[in-house]
Amino acid sequence: MLRDKDVNKVLGILLPVVDKVITARPNSDRAMTAEDLAQKVKVFEKPVEVSKNIKDAVEKASMISGEKEAIVYAGSLYMIGEVRTLINKMNDSL
Where do the Mur ligase C-terminal domain residues begin and end (predicted)? Predict the structure, then answer.
C-alpha cells in the first residue's frame, strides 16, 4: 500500500470481510514496507503474513486458499497489474 493513502480507513473496510492477510511491498518509491503494513493489520487482530514480494504473495495466497474461497487483492493499479500478469501465467501453466 502506498504511504500517502489512508491505510487505516482502507483496512477498516477490507478486514471485516477477510480471514487472513498477506502483505507485500509493491514496486513504488511511495510504498509502505510489507512489515509496516503487517503491523497496522495486527491492530485489527487479523492473522497476517509478510511476503518478500508480490509474486511470493500471489503464490502463498493460491496455496492457502480453499477451492471455494475468494482471494482479494488490494493495492495500487500498478500492483494489481502485476498480480494479473502472475495469475495469467499461473493459469496458462495448468
Answer: 3-76
